[in-house]
CRM domain-containing protein
Amino acid sequence: MLKFSSWRRPPHETLTLTSPILSIFRLLTQSPPLPDHIHDPPFSLTSNPKDNVKKKKKKKKKKKKENGESKKGQTFPFKSDLPFDFRYSYSEANPSVHPIGFREPPRFSPFGPARLDRKWTGTAAPAEEVVDPAVVSEQRKAVLGEPLSEDEIAELVERYRHSDCSRQINLGKGGVTHNMLDDIHNHWKRAEAVRIKCLGVPTLDMENVCFHLEDKCGGKIIYRNINIILLYRGRNYDPKNRPVVPLMLWKPYAPIYPKLVKPVADGLTFEETKEMRNRGLNLPPVMKLTKNGVYVNVVERVREAFRSEEVVRLDCTHVGSSDCKRIGVKLRDLVPCVPILFKDEQIILWKGKNGEEHDSQH
C-alpha cells in the first residue's frame, strides 16, 4: 500500500494567526509564490549568439592548422635564410667536439615535427645552402649604414645602459641561445638598441659572447662594461624585413661527451695524479665563486696563481655540479690548464706540462 502524506495548505494561504503583530511580520517576510515553469526547465538551454561566434572562430583556426598555416601567415615548414647552423646555444657549444652518444634519438627535432626545412642531427640543424661570407658581410654593412658619431653613441648609451631599462635581455648559463635571437629582433622593432646583462658561466669569456651576438644577429656592440652589453641594430634596419628565426619549442637534451677528468692525467703517473689531487684539496682557494655571478676576472686570477703554484683550487660552493664542470671546460681552453678533480663543488686545476714550458719561455 502506498501512503500519501496529508494535504497541507501552502504557507502563503495560511493567514490565521494568533496576534495581529505576528501576522503582519509574517506577511512582510514571506516570499511570493514561484511560477510553475521555474521547476520545470527546458531540456536544453538556449544558445548564446556569442558562443556561436567563438565556435566558428575555433573551427577556422583548426582548418588553418590542418592546412599548415601559422599565426603569422607563414606556412610549414619554416624556411630561414640565415647562413649558420641552428643550435640551442652558440656561445657554449663547441662544434669541433663530437658527442659519443645521445640521450634522445636525433629524429626528435626541438623545432617540432615538420616545422623546419632543416634536418636535426642531435646537436644542430645545418644550413643546406652554402652562402658566400663576402655577400653576408656586405648585407650587414648595408643594414648598419654609416658609423655612429660619438654624440649619437653617447645618447644611446645614456638611454639604454641603466638598470631600469625596459629593453633588457638576461643572458644566463645557456649563453647566446637560438630563441634569444628572436627576442633581440622583437626588441629592435621599437628600440634602436638592446641592453644585455650577462651572468654565470658565459662571463668567463665575454669576447666569445660578443662575437656570437654580432655574428648571429647582425648588430653592432656600441657599449660594454664588465657584463653589460648594448647591441645596436643599425641605421637601415627594417623590422618588416627581419630574418626568419624559427623558435625551438623545447630545450633539447644535452648529448653525451667524453669524460672531462681522466683517471690518470696526461704526463703523470697514477701516484703523481693522486698526490696532485690531495695537495690541491689542502690548498687555500684562489677565489670563491658564487652562483650566477660575474666571472670576468677568473681566468686572469688563475693564470697569476699558476706562476707560483703548480696546482690551484677554486671554491665553487653552492654553484652547482653542472656549472662547476662548465667552468672547468672553459678554464681548460682559456688558461690553458688540466682539470684533475671535481669534488664537493671544488675544482682542482693542474697547469700541465705545456704550462711549465710556457713559463720557461717567458
Observations:
- Confidence is low (pLDDT under 50) at residues 1-7, 12-18, 36-45, 66-70.
- The radius of gyration is 34 Å.
